[in-house]
Amino acid sequence: YNSPPSGRASNPSADIPTPTDEMVANCYHHTQGWSLYIANLEENSDELAIYKLFSPFGAISSVNAMIDSETGKSRGYGFVNMPQYSSAFEAVRLMHGVQLAPGKNLSVSFKTNRRNNHKFPSSSGIKS
After folding, report:
1. What is d(CA 109, CA 9) in angstroms, rounded to the nearest whole number?
2. Are 77 and 41 within 8 A, CB to CB?
3. Which of 18, 19, 90, 127 has a C-alpha 20 to 30 A away from that of 2?
């Protein structure tokens, strides 16, 4: 796995901002990598569908589709974990706003802890 940067380590790509210490604390897990939150999924979205959407961006540690236990259909959101920050950043940047169906645009961002309520935006750089 890709260990989190200590402090503000330099990033080899000038186009990808270095994650802040706050992002590392809230969005990175030492065994799973960088966690992405995906919303506005279609009701037939499962883990394989989510995997196929995000695998072109790089390695995936895990995928978790939230499925309604009564209907067996997607609850409209899920999570993807990617070991490499650059892959996760590009996935967020390029997948946020993608239209999967008429009137159904994906919302993709770095996952945050609910209790902290910080928002790390999707496509226009990293801000808190």
Report:
1. 22
2. yes
3. 127
Residue 97 pLDDT: 95
Q: Which two tokens stand for residue 21?
A: 């210490």
Q: Residue 104 is which amino acid? A: K
State which residues of the chain have pLDDT below 70.
1-14, 114-128
C-alpha span between 127 and 49 (Å, rounded): 29
What pLDDT does 69 receive?
94
Burial (0-12, 13-18, 19+ Cβ within 10 Å), 92: buried
Q: Is the pTM of this model over 0.85?
A: no
Q: How far is CA 90 from CA 29, 56, 73, 86, 102, in A?
A: 18, 10, 28, 6, 24
Tokens 């946020």 -> residue: 96
pLDDT at residue 7 in the model: 38
